[in-house]
Amino acid sequence: MLATHLGVALWLSAVMSRQVGKSYAILLNMKKSIKSSTRLSSLVVEFDREEDGRWIAEIPKLPGVMAYGSTKRNALQRVYAIALRTLADSVEQGSFFTPVSRIFGYGVARG
Fold first, then answer.
1. For residue 35, is pLDDT > 50?
2. Which CATH code is given to the segment(s) 2-101?
3. Is 67 exposed, middle or buried (0-12, 13-18, 19+ CB in 10 A)?
4. Closest by Cα among 68, 61, 69, 53 to 90
5. What is the domain partition of the chain in residue ranges?
6. DSSP class of 102
7. CB burial readout 76-103, b (16+ within 10 A) else e
């Protein structure tokens, strides 16, 4: 499997821009503005290709977060969306996956 390391900021910028290619420039600008006291965790997106030609993207650290796409890019866009929905839902419910509580160098407010 091909593994790609992606920061959480890249997820957010990719979803906001709706284009994966433009997200790299946004990420570079965001890195400049992040204070040294905050730290973004990297999550790994693993890709595999099915026998029928479809791509599957999976984030192993987030159980159940995987998506199929007709192209690698399409699978990546879909797995971004699922990951963000999963993370947002866990924050709203107050039950954090380990990576959610460590996205930044400080704790996530509960309550």
1. no
2. 3.30.160.250
3. buried
4. 61
5. 2-101
6. T
7. bbbbbebbbebbeebbeeeebeebbeeb
Query: pTM higher than 0.70, yes or no?
Result: no
pLDDT tens for 50-69 read 999 999 999 988 889 999 99
Res 22 pLDDT > 90? no
Sheet strands (E) in the chain: 2-7, 42-49, 55-58, 66-69
Identify any residues that bridge with 43 across adjacent strands, giving them in sequence order.
6
Q: Which of 6-10, 85-89, 94-98, 100-104 shows the lowest mean pLDDT across its residues?
A: 6-10
Q: What token pair was written down for 100?
A: 């959610």
Distances (CA, A) of 55 to 2, 14, 15, 27, 39: 11, 19, 19, 25, 31
